[in-house]
Amino acid sequence: MRSSRDGHLCLTSSDAPELPIEILGDGTDLLPKTPIIKQANRYYLQRNWVYETYILKQVKRLREIKLTDTFPVEVQSNLLPAQRNAIENAIGNAFSIICGGPGTGKTYTAGCLVKTLLSGSSKKNKFRVALGAPTGKAAAHLKSVLGAVDAQVEAATLHRLLKVTPGQTPLFSNKKIDADLVIIDEASMLDVPLLARLLESIGNETRLVLMGDPNQLPPVEAGSLFSEMATLFGTELKQSVRTENTNLLCLAEEINSGKFTKDECLLDWEFDATFPKKLFEKTKPIISWDRPDPAICLKMLNEFRILGALRQGPFGTEALNSQIVREMNQQIQPGQWWAIPIMITANVPQQDLYNGSCGILIGQSSFGIVLREANAYFPEKVPFHLLPPFEVAFCLSIHKSQGSEFEHVLALFPQGSENFGRESLYTAVTRAKKSVEIVADSMCLKAMLSKRLNKTSGFTSRIQEGEK
Predict the structure, then answer these.
(1) What stretch of H or E contains 89?
(2) Chain segment 1-39, per-residue pLDDT in tens
(3) How far apart are the first and last CA of the chain?
(4) Which residues pair with 381 in a beta bridge?
(5) Which of 65, 105, 108, 123 has the fewest CB atoms inside 10 Å of its own CB, making it the most exposed?
(6) pTM (predicted TM-score)
(7) For 397, phi and psi rounded to 5 degrees?
(8) Which of 121, 134, 128 is nearest to 164 (CA)?
(9) What angle (nearest 5°) sits at the alpha carbon of residue 359, between those of residues 353 and 363?
(10) Distance between CA 42 and CA 412 in Å, rounded?
């Protein structure tokens, strides 16, 4: 149970104690009656066994599909060899994976795939494409980068695409996504319940393409199956097609190999009593006698963001957000305007607001900052009383920043961050497009670089063993 809480799907042991048959099953059924299941030297809680086994079953089904429309197509000539391989793999298989780091052209390759399939499809403008991602922002970005194509394109959060309520991902529903091609971005964020439901929803005449960076943080919940599947089935795009900042790309590669030589990125700050004040000055929150322009505020929001490895504790994102607002409250004068970034924490499709949607709260001080007296902008105006649940977002957790990009990033790694390994450092650095600054204790940084967040599962072994 402790292993499962730490995100592992199973516990491997060659000398586990004998357990009575009422507790321990032998792993021959998808839905066993015992609370613990043993398979080879792997021990599973019942729930984890069901998810892993069901995902294996669905992956096997999709990989064995003989597509009826494997027509000859001409792949575009202006592609790198790996991009061409990724497209050919997606054309020839009902289930494929395009993986790679930032700037390697995953989304561009997906766009070329769509155009290639359209060029050989008899359906023409009836060809249906479904685009999904864990957050609404990432799904909308995928659609915008894809551009105009002669097809019916739907972009939505994965929960909306699957027609499930967040927190509830029931299996065995037999509901299929009505599309010829399903592309899911930021797939490294998928936990096992959502991944199982997604695979189940792909019909035998539909192609599924997962995209993502297997070196990013795995889901908070159990399992890191995307990285395992990327190793088994993925086409990796290694060559960066971005040129704006090769230093950031080199830093990301260094971190991924457990090194860090870019000391110029480190700020000489201590996590002490002076830290919140320094952070406030770095953030430069908007306090003005003139009413702030929502469009300008939202633009500024994407130019600079603080990312933190921890949510809780004196230097976690929750405490730091509160301290910045408290400092604003002390400095603001009656009649002045203020603007505070927020992040939505629930899905409200009827308002086109989703978990991860970022906006800005703008209000005028009477006697300090009162959030409920403000209006929000996304950029559409939303009165406070209509806002879904949200949190202040001067500082974002690195987990929640996945799927987003900012011009400049300040990344914070107080003591305790080492538990998240080098994936946390890599994810923070790859959110930046132009520059990154890092505040980290030297021992903490060393410990992070030496640790990988490998979550144990039996997925790869069971695939290689050819299990039915």
Answers:
(1) helix 81-92
(2) 888 888 899 999 887 778 888 899 888 888 888 999 999
(3) 27
(4) 377
(5) 123
(6) 0.88
(7) -70, 145
(8) 134
(9) 125
(10) 37
